[in-house]
Amino acid sequence: MTSTSTPGLARFNTSQDSAALAALHEVCASSAWGSKLLAQRPYATAEDLFSASDAALAELTAEDLEEAMAGHPPIGRPKPGDPTSAHEQRGMAGASEALKAELLELNLDYQEKFGHVFLICATGATGEQMRDAVKTRIGNTAEEEREIVRTELGKINRIRLTRLVEEDKD
Which of 57, 122, 128, 130 has its CA 20 to 30 A from that of 138? Predict the structure, then answer.
């Protein structure tokens, strides 16, 4: 990632608060995270924005994490009309019906145990890798899983923030 300002970062820095907050909400559904990033504008570099994101993420409460996770669809079931989810979960696009069914069952078991969607940075992962991850992680304690979710959310946020600051549109 470049350490200089980009057109997308400049646009984010100078946009109205409501527009910037809406863009941040597309990155992460946590209102606490978005508010913290909004309050620190302008950012000199994308790395400054990423650092602020990491710091805000580290401060999220369990409730804030739940709010952030609520913005993510289950693996294998991206939200209709949501190109971001579909793009991030494209590793499931060629998955067999058997794998999709297995992942659905695992997702339901995970949600029953932890009370929230299975969250993983799906970008670049295959359906099999995602299935194996949920099989492994379902054995975690709630506390262990909350920290893994925080790490995965950080990866997702960084990918999405990168797209935000690198967009070159008017």
Answer: 57
